[in-house]
TrEMBL record:
<dbReference type="Pfam" id="PF00300">
    <property type="entry name" value="His_Phos_1"/>
</dbReference>
<dbReference type="InterPro" id="IPR029033">
    <property type="entry name" value="His_PPase_superfam"/>
</dbReference>
<protein>
    <recommendedName>
        <fullName>Phosphoglycerate mutase</fullName>
    </recommendedName>
</protein>
<dbReference type="InterPro" id="IPR013078">
    <property type="entry name" value="His_Pase_superF_clade-1"/>
</dbReference>
Length: 322
């Protein structure tokens, strides 16, 4: 017969202070009081316009917001927090920037299909050996891994998030090996980092992708023509939804950690970077990645605006524009 034990109740939580003088009163601190006190503390540093501009974030709900509040306004907020916590003399803004926001975006090296000049985006074949790195792609990826090492991206360890697509996962393994990262820190992504599906362009020559980008520049909602072989036909907005979901996961589970995102194509990364720095999505091609390219996400990397020839298309709420 099994012995039963009487459940033990948890001891009461001790008060914040052990004693109270007759001239003072202890007020319990909860999350709401803490946030209220912080808002009052920061209020002298904020102008009315800044309050007004931040109201859109205060009411936002749902997934990770693009562009992230902490990236867009990081220089201002970091300055305020640093002054409050450390004082002027001890405030190292560069250190705060690095500690608060470290996402490295890496495009895998050239694939065997890309080496042949053929578009291949059907996810059915993404784990095929034929979708792996070409000889040239391996060299490009090694250079990317060495670049990450030279800039100290993974000095204090990092997480590597590659697409499960063959060439991206191969690239992740090369990056981990050269940077001394355990394979247990490679987290394969099964869907949110798939190469952008180009529909009826599947199997066509690689240079025909310029036609897709011409449509992208008109609207992020235009899809490539569909095809019946199972290849998705994704608009820029479709890709944006995927990478936003990816960032929601990363910000929830790995906030504060260095993350290296490895994509099989450029569009995932250019759309992601456009969203994160507040560039309208129609212009994501301005941020195109070459095979084996490495970037640290930074708000200062927004390229100069190129006015459309018609001067008709304007964006007042980037990256969400039509």
């Amino acid at each position: 017969m099994l012995a039963t034990t009487k459940p033990v109740s948890n001891p009461p939580t001790p008060p914040l202070f052990s004693s109270v003088s007759k001239h003072s009163q202890i007020i319990s601190i909860n999350r709401r009081n803490l946030l209220a006190s912080l808002s009052l503390t920061l209020a002298p540093f904020l102008t009315f316009d800044e309050f007004k501009n931040h109201s859109q974030y205060a009411h936002a709900r749902g997934l990770f917001q693009m562009p992230p509040v902490r990236l867009v306004n990081r220089h201002y907020l970091i300055s305020v927090l640093c002054l409050l916590l450390l004082g002027v003399e001890k405030c190292d803004l560069d250190l705060w920037v690095v500690c608060l926001y470290r996402y490295y975006l890496v495009r895998a090296g050239e694939s065997q299909y890309e080496g042949l000049g053929i578009i291949n985006t059907n996810p059915v074949a993404k784990t095929s050996v034929d979708n792996g790195l070409s000889e040239k792609g391996i060299k490009q990826t090694v250079r990317a891994a060495l670049e990450l090492k030279s800039i100290g991206a993974c000095e204090s360890n990092c997480w590597i998030w590659p697409s499960i697509t063959q060439r991206a996962y191969q690239a992740a393994e090369i990056i981990a090996s050269i940077n001394g990262i355990s394979r247990s820190y490679i987290v394969p992504e099964y869907s949110f980092l798939d190469a952008r599906g180009l529909g009826a362009y599947e199997g066509k020559k690689l240079d025909s992708v310029s036609e897709v980008y011409a449509s992208d520049s008109l609207s992020p909602n235009i899809k490539p023509p569909p095809v019946s072989d199972g290849t998705p036909n994704e608009s820029v907005q479709d890709v944006f939804v995927r990478v936003t979901q990816l960032m929601s996961i990363l910000e929830t589970q790995y906030s504060g950690n260095t993350v290296v995102i490895v994509s099989p194509d450029s569009d995932n990364l250019s759309v992601l970077q456009a969203g994160m720095v507040g560039l309208e999505l129609r212009r994501h091609m301005d941020l195109a990645f070459g095979p084996g390219e490495v970037r640290l996400v930074d708000a200062s990397c927004i390229p100069a605006y190129k006015q459309p020839a018609s001067a008709v298309y304007k964006c007042f709420n980037p990256p969400n524009c039509t």
